[in-house]
Amino acid sequence: MFKQYLKQALQMLKENRLTSVISILGTALSIAMILVVVLQFQIRLVGFRPESNRDRMLYILGIRADSQTDPNNRNSTAMSDGVVKECLYPLQTPESVTAMAKDRSIVSLPNRRLFEEYVICYTDPGFWKVFDFHFLSGKPFTEADFSSGLPRAVITNTLARKLFGSEEPVGKEIEMGYVSYAVTGVVKEPSRAAGSAYSDVWVPYTSNTNYVNNQSCGGVCGNFQAVILAHSSGDFDAIRAEIKQAVARYNAGGRDFVLGINYIFSRVDVALGSNDMNGGIQVGWLEYLTQKVPLLLFLLLVPTLNLTGVIQSSVQKRRSEMGLRKAFGATKGRLLTQVLCENLITTMIGGIIGIILSVVLLHLCKSFLLSREMVITFEMLFKPALFAAALFFTLLLNLLSAGLPAIRIAREQIVDALKDNDNS
Amino acid sequence: MIKHILKIIWNQRRSNVWIFMELLLVVAIFWVMMDSLFVDICTYKTPLGFDITNVYKVNFGKISPDVPGYVPDELHQTSDGEDVIRLADNLRQNPEVENACLAIAACPYSWNTSWVNLIQAEADTTQKADVFQRLQVEPAYYDVFRITDQEGHPLRPIVEQHTGDLVITADLERDFWNGQSGIGRQVKWNSSSTESITVAAVSTPLRRTEYDKSRPCFYVLWRSDKDIIETVEWAQAQNLECFIRMKDGFRSEDMEALLQQMSDRLTVNNLYVSSITPLQEMRTSFLKPRTDNLTKKSVLIGFMLLNVFLGIVGTFWLRTQYRQGEFGLRAALGASRSKLKQFMNVEGLCLLSFTVPLVLIFIVNMLYFDMPDTYRQPYSLWRFLVTFGGTCLLLAGMIWVGIWFPAQKIAKMDPAESLHYE
Fold it and tell me: How many domains does chain B have?
């Protein structure tokens, strides 16, 4: 039966070239636009190198530090190295923990002063365990480098090429703020889409005195955010509980300021737009969807009305055929399925083109949808979620656009249909 | 003819209702987009109050005490303030540099702003103290950014002719003195302060970015080096902003070479020039979210136009197929081809015009709830005509193009053949 529908649908597509092209184009365009919205979210959500394990990561993006004595002195900022050392490094449940602070600084060579700024990430050896960077040469700075605060740096291949040309950079020196750092390793430059891992240079934070022994608001406030890698996402609650205990222990020390870690986000929270700077906000699916659904609905509704018009017209043309089939005993349900299935062929073709088009559109519109410098890889785009979303929206579009005409034609009186009577 | 067409549209209501609903939705949303684009573009076009072409921001760094090369306090006689002034002088003396200046919280396209209270000195004490943006600058700042007074005369000579430590913008002058000249008048920091400050000059209105409306703000002048040195005592020297204007014809690619060449003059004791950013570049990244938004709106407009096109082509194409008999008959009865085309066009445009009353109700409601942006651009008849007229014209154009294809087919039709279908 379905084979028959398929044949019939293909025949109709051929017969009515222009309307077929229009339906397919309309569907493809709408699906592509919707998928671009989905893809933007997907890039924020799913893992890719060097943030492959995003599904196992927890994020501490900010903290609260409230004065014990002055009720007006309340801060919402990032962690100090003290908080990291006392509350996060001793955690038992996670696989690894890293703290990082980013800044911009000039990177020069010992014999030549340069004036271009780069992103510098002040971090710890745990960083290389949480994120899976691809080392092109050399290796990360070590635990020993970190504990003695030695000036060691890992740089990206792009920066290495800029500074040293084709020479081997490992072992050479770079200068930042008049301090010489020895390059220990070169990594493949991560995409800017990897917001936490992205940087041009990574150094042990102990090598810069500005990041150690921070004393602002009683030693609580500083520059660090943290990423925690769990063994599995099932451990998230246990980790949250353990951090809560650690914070309670920290506060028992009787400092002038009370530390509060209010939010420990999972990747989903971060992708939905949660943040913990200047007050902190947790965005759930509901808030995210209320913001996005109007746009998606609009992108879906306009082409739907289009298609309905076209389908209505083409179904109208086939009224006598439908009447005849009904006269020979076809049920309402069967006719309904037939119209829907036939149109599904068109929408499916549109959907497939839509997937391709969405990737093309995302690349073309990268400069204003994401950022021009962001590298988009195959790994980020072709995830099952993309195809699931495409299928879902295609079916929805089909149901919305062909549903009404199909119901109408199926319910029509045989006599009217056969007579081509338009008075019903 | 119109009456006749109305009858036809009514008889075709089954397929027309969909295209009508699409048009309704599209016209409404189109108007919303057009209106917000209109406000954006109008705001963008009004003068900014400053000029950043060929202006660069110089960032300073300070060598930290644990680094070799740090000059300890006992070895240098000058303060950080004097050092930073010397650094700016070094830059100014370069033949490629037209002028240089130091400032605080005065960088356009940056989040680093400062806001303080300011009131008129002669006003009674009941006057509500308002907070305004404060920019602290050297008089050279007006040369670097080519800031003028309201008549278009360069501001710096005016500042130098008059005494006083404050320059206010025209918006603030209007707020305080409502149309009277503010030059030479007195203002105070707050109602309890006894010290009053003289206004030296009035500048053109200042806008933070191309997308913002101008807001009242004022400049605190650093008339002498002493003022700068005093400021540096509480604000660190490396937090001072420094701007340089390069001579016309200077290309930003040459900046690196220029800095290499004057390398030794870029360090004074513990202070050094760490990097130089073209303001053009800062502008691009600062405005990116707003510009992106604008582009997204335009893309959505394109999406709608394309959909209307596809919808019209689709609906009318199928319609011509099963109305071939009708058109054949018309042709046979003497309707010329252009007449037939015109017939279809009017049919399409009628559909569009039916949406107008409903959309007008929508617009009135939107205005009633003050949804359009009336802060940056007051709502006027002119604005309504441009946005609503633009919407209708663009869509009408799209409908006309969409109908062109099926109409072409009708025109090629042989009347005898079409009548054959009957």
Answer: 2
